[in-house]
Every structure is written in structure tokens, then in C-alpha cells.
Design a protein that fits this description.
Blueprint: H1 12-24, H2 38-42, H3 82-93, H4 98-107, H5 113-116, E1 124-125, E2 131-135, H6 140-145, H7 152-163, E3 171-175, H8 189-206, E4 210-214, H9 216-223, H10 229-232, E5 236-241, E6 244-251, H11 254-259, H12 264-281
Parallel strand pairs: 2-3, 2-4, 4-6
Antiparallel strand pairs: 1-3, 5-6
Helix pairs in contact: 3-8
This protein binds uracil.
Uracil is lined by residues 135-139, 142, 148-149, 151, 153, 175, 255.
Length: 285
């Protein structure tokens, strides 16, 4: 761990307060004194040098069929190009089930966030639920557990769901970006663009009746709007899901509510609106 500058006479309470301060400042990883190139650590070992032998007869003509492109663990960070976005769309569209989609994301190397994240945070809750909730990207706790919304904002989300009679098994939860951005930074537009086909397909395959965007980032991406979340929240909109349209609403992100508890009253209205919509459309079967 980096030198803290704590002198020998410090008390256990002092150390504990210092650690709490580090955490509050966003220092949530134990690091060493020497910088570590985490990209290098994940690189595949270099291939052995080719063995060059004298040909004993004329080599066969080259194979006219181009070999399929085999992707190995990327040696260099991949930039989100149009080609990567096209590949993401093709890969996602070819998936016929949520299991296939998860497996395809496990293999997909077009987003650099997978290089620094510990886990793919694919989804939580119950696939096929009437309600699907989508956040922005996993945080530290989610990355550690491989599940969405299991940290402090997840605990608040659980309370909000409980307040309208729902639990985790009544909703399906995912994120626009399924890997934790380092240090919980905002995903870049390229990262979001490359992950978008996957969340779109995930929504299609889970086929909810109601889609809830948790926070402005998810709302902006899924509802394709630049409207601010404080104006957008609470309004039911139509979301194209293959052949049909489902109802979608944005609400305030639980992490924002933890910072701005007075805003919980708006989220409460939104959750009541969801409860009424569920009751009005009746049970799904
Ligand atoms: N915030 C999000 O947007 N998603 C999570 O999974 C956790 C926190």
C-alpha cells in the first residue's frame, strides 16, 4: 500500500479514520509503491519464434479460402472503431437467448473495460420479469461480486422496490456497460457505443413489459435523448422492442439519491407510477 505518512504514535482509531477518509476520497484499491501495467499482465505470452526449415519440396499453393479471424487476448488496447461497433451489433443480433448473449459478451474483446474489470456484470434478478431496470455501469462491489446493484446504491434500490411490493425476483437488472470502468469513472462515448447493441439485445431477449432507466446516463443511452434526468424522469415513453413497443420510464439513480436524499420524493413518485402501471396492466400470463 502507498505510504500513508502516518507516524508511529498514531492510534487504531486514527488509522481507522484515515482509511475512512481514503475511501470517501475514492481510494478504494490497495496499491503498491511500484506502478503495475495491468494491460501487460493480461497480455498473452509472445508466440515462440517461428521455426524456419529448408523446404524439401515446393510448398503447397496458398489456401484460397481465407481462414476465419481468430481473436486472441488483445495485445494492445482496442479502440472502439466503427468496425468494432459493427461487430458488436452482429454478435449481439446472432444471440438467440440470454445465455448465448452472456457467453458472447464473455468472449467479446471489442471493449477495453474488460481488461481492467474483474468480472463481467451481466445481470441480476429474474430474466423475463415484467420489469427490467438498467443502470449505467457496475461499481467496485458489483465488479467483485459479478452482480449489478449490490453495493450501497443496490441496497437503496432494494428498499425502493420493497416499498412498492417488489423484490429482486420480480425484476431483471442490467447495465448499459457490463464492465466496471476503472475508478468508477464515466464510461466514454466509445465504450458506451460498443456495448449498446448488447444491452439492446438483452432487453429484447428478456422482453419486459416495462423498462426503467436508472439515472440520466442509462436514460440518455436507451431513450436516445439529451434531456436532463430531472426533466425526463417520471414520464412514460415508448421504447421499440423488435416488433412491439414497451413502456419505458427514467428515474433518479439510487447513487444520486444517496447524495441528494431530498430528491427521494421524486423517485418515490416514479416508483408509485410503476406500481400503478403494473397493476393496471395486470399479471403477465
Ligand atoms: N450503479 C450502476 O449504475 N450500476 C450498478 O450495477 C451499480 C451501481
Amino acid at each position: 500500500m502507498a505510504s500513508s505518512g502516518v507516524d508511529q504514535g498514531v492510534t487504531a482509531a486514527g488509522v481507522s479514520a484515515l482509511l475512512a477518509w481514503y475511501e470517501a476520497m475514492g481510494v478504494d484499491e490497495v496499491v503498491g509503491e511500484v506502478p503495475v501495467d495491468r494491460f501487460a499482465a493480461r497480455r498473452a505470452p509472445p508466440p515462440p519464434p517461428p521455426i524456419v526449415a529448408e523446404p524439401i519440396e515446393a510448398p503447397p499453393p496458398p489456401d484460397p479460402v481465407p481462414a476465419p479471424r481468430v481473436r486472441t487476448q488483445s495485445a494492445e488496447p482496442v479502440l472502439a472503431t466503427d468496425e468494432t461497433a459493427r461487430e458488436a451489433r452482429a454478435v449481439a443480433a446472432a444471440c438467440a437467448s440470454l445465455d448465448e448473449l452472456r457467453a458472447a459478451l464473455e468472449r467479446f474483446e471489442g471493449c477495453n473495460l474488460r481488461l481492467t474489470a474483474r468480472s463481467l456484470v451481466f445481470a441480476g434478478g429474474m430474466p423475463g420479469s415484467r420489469v427490467m431496470m438498467v443502470g449505467e455501469a457496475p461499481g467496485r462491489e458489483e465488479d467483485l461480486q459479478g452482480l449489478p446493484f449490490v453495493g450501497r446504491s443496490g441496497q437503496l434500490l432494494d428498499l425502493m422496490l420493497k416499498a412498492i411490493g417488489l423484490g429482486r425476483s420480480d425484476v431483471y437488472i442490467a447495465n448499459v456497460v457490463p464492465w466496471r470502468p476503472p475508478g468508477n469513472r464515466t464510461p466514454t462515448p466509445q465504450e458506451t457505443a460498443v456495448c449498446r447493441p448488447f444491452i439492446q439485445r438483452q432487453i429484447e431477449l428478456s422482453a419486459p413489459e416495462f423498462l426503467i432507466c436508472l439515472g440520466g446516463a442509462a436514460a440518455k443511452e436507451l431513450m436516445q435523448t439529451n434531456e436532463g434526468i430531472l426533466r425526463l424522469r417520471g414520464q412514460w415513453r415508448s421504447f421499440a422492442l423488435g416488433e412491439r413497443n414497451i413502456r419505458a420510464m427514467a428515474t433518479l439513480h439510487p447513487a444520486y439519491l444517496l447524495r441528494q436524499p431530498l430528491q427521494k420524493r421524486f423517485a418515490w413518485r416514479d416508483f408509485l407510477s410503476l406500481r400503478d402501471a403494473l397493476a393496471a396492466s395486470g399479471p403477465a400470463n
